[in-house]
């Protein structure tokens, strides 16, 4: 049973700090000088998806931004500021947008469940749902949330890619690649969704290929045989 005593957290923290110092003498002294992460993680706030633990990265190795359902909104100064700091100051080489299966935000968006203020936030995922409603409606009901999780990741990779931060970085010749990943809470495994954007190739064909791959992945053979695969064009 988890304890309500917050002293436990401090006790664990002291033990962890001491263990780190035993295993890696001077570890924290090194961290004080500078953080030099090669990676930026944009993920869901869900407590089951901790960036460092999943990837085996230590403090100082991954710059993290998390919000409900890993959304990057064009005008979200919080996310954009984090991306700008990561790209322009920390010079990260890879940005991973990481969705996760079983995401409550994605499920609420799919089903139109009212939560509260967050309804307005996950409205962005409902826009993704609506854009791909032909595909989603054609899928078996029990896989739609997983498919929308992947579609949302693809959409947010595009949103990062078209941000002024990335457009400017690539125009300067900076090498930064944006990746779309998903995480399985049920098995602890990451999956690369096959969308890696580095500013050298047109975005639209890459996005369309991933959407098509998602459709093939989740469709039943019968649906694929009888379906034209047409999608509602993006607004
Ligand atoms: Zn989530």
UniProtKB/TrEMBL annotation:
SMART domains: Pro_CA (SM00947). The keyword Iron-sulfur does not apply. Its EC number is 4.2.1.1. It catalyses: hydrogencarbonate + H(+) = CO2 + H2O. Binds 1 zinc ion per subunit. One of its GO terms (biological process) is carbon utilization. Its cofactor is Zn(2+). Zn(2+) binds at residues 44, 46, 100, 103. InterPro entries: Carbonic_anhydrase (IPR001765), Carbonic_anhydrase_CS (IPR015892), Carbonic_anhydrase_sf (IPR036874). Signal peptide: none annotated. CDD domains: beta_CA_cladeA. Belongs to the beta-class carbonic anhydrase family. This is Carbonic anhydrase 2. It comes from Acidovorax cavernicola.
């Amino acid at each position: 049973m988890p304890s309500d005593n917050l002293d436990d957290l401090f006790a664990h923290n002291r033990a962890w700090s001491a263990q780190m110092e035993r295993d890696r003498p001077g570890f924290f002294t090194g961290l004080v000088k500078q953080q030099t992460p090669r990676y930026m993680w944009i993920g869901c706030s869900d407590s089951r998806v901790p960036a460092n633990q999943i990837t085996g990265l230590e403090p100082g190795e991954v710059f993290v931004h998390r919000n409900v359902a890993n959304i990057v909104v064009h005008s979200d100064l919080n996310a954009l500021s984090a991306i700008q700091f990561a790209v322009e100051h920390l010079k990260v080489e890879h940005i991973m947008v990481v969705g996760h299966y079983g995401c409550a935000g994605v499920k609420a968006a799919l089903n139109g469940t009212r939560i509260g203020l967050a309804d307005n936030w996950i409205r962005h995922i409902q826009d993704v749902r609506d854009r791909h409603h032909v595909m989603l409606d054609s899928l078996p009901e029990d896989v739609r949330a997983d498919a929308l999780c992947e579609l949302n990741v693809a959409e947010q990779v595009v949103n990062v890619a078209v941000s002024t931060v990335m457009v400017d970085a690539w125009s300067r010749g900076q090498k930064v690649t944006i990746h779309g990943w998903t995480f399985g809470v049920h098995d602890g495994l990451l999956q690369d969704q096959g969308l890696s954007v580095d500013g050298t190739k047109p975005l639209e064909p890459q996005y369309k290929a991933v959407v098509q791959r998602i459709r093939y992945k989740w469709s039943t053979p019968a649906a694929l045989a009888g379906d034209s695969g047409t999608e509602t064009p993006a607004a």
